[in-house]
Design a protein that fits this description.
Elements: H1 13-46, H2 54-84, H3 89-125
Amino acid sequence: MAETSQSEYEFSPAHNTVMSEFSSAIVMVSIGTILLGSITILLGLGHVTRGTWQPLFEVGGGVVGLAIGFWLMNGAHALDLVVKTEGSDVTHLMSALAQLRRIFRLQALLMLVQALLLLLVVILSLR
């Protein structure tokens, strides 16, 4: 979290409108992501009897979706606090950015894993 400074910047009403609309959009995406992640987990659990790796990937994907959904929700809440409170705008904004940073770090990690798996497939196919 960001340290609180003695003189916090206060955003203008126009800035607050933009942040409020952004927060609302994030909430909508987070709800959808949480619902889809939950459904994916349930589908994965329903496929456990198949004896393949598919259920593991489905459940894992659902868990990732839930994590992203909750990080989005936390980020939206912090942005909403920027709009609804006075005296802590920078602190709340930095909290929102920290939540959103988690999502991008996870996506970067998943992209690295995907690239490594793709490289492995290419190497094995050339043998």
